[in-house]
Amino acid sequence: MSTESDRSTTDEPTASVADLQARVEELEAQLADVSATDEDDQQSMVIIATKGTLDMAYPPLILASTAAAFGWDVTLFHTFWGLDILHEERSKDLKLSAVGNPNMPVPNAIGALPGMDRVTTSMMRKKIRDNETASIEELIQTSLDMGVEMQACQMTIDLMDYDEDDFYDGVTVGVGAATALSDMAEADIQLLV
Fold first, then answer.
1. Are 172 and 151 in contact (CB under 8 A)?
2. Helix (H, G, I), strand (E, B) or coil at 31
């Protein structure tokens, strides 16, 4: 025989299970909201690389790989001479201009002499090696491995008669200025290098 008090203790666990189930569902919904907010809070950066000299290849690659290391969503759009950075052969032979560069250890008059670009490029490459700084190729591969989207401007590919097969594996081709502008409009940080 069950008494009234026995029934109320039997009913209580059923009510508690339903309450617990409702609370679990509520917490799961809150967790889903927090996860969605975290994804929305991911920083993003778009860098436009326009120059293909040795000294101008490093800044966009260093910024892109560093931002990717912090978990940022990074797009690196290369246009005009910046495409030389993505070209497997040309990227190995990027030059440094001795003329018009105020930080060169030689005056412009001497920098304008034949062969000075070769001399200043050799000096910079030696400094890079001596400092054990990553090469352009290493920075490109690191960036690609970290999820940086390397884009090559299609108009410039056509204009400068680049062969798309000569770019590093993983480079996105067929991208235009409209896509770059759209990416920039949505990015937290936009840089032109």
1. yes
2. helix
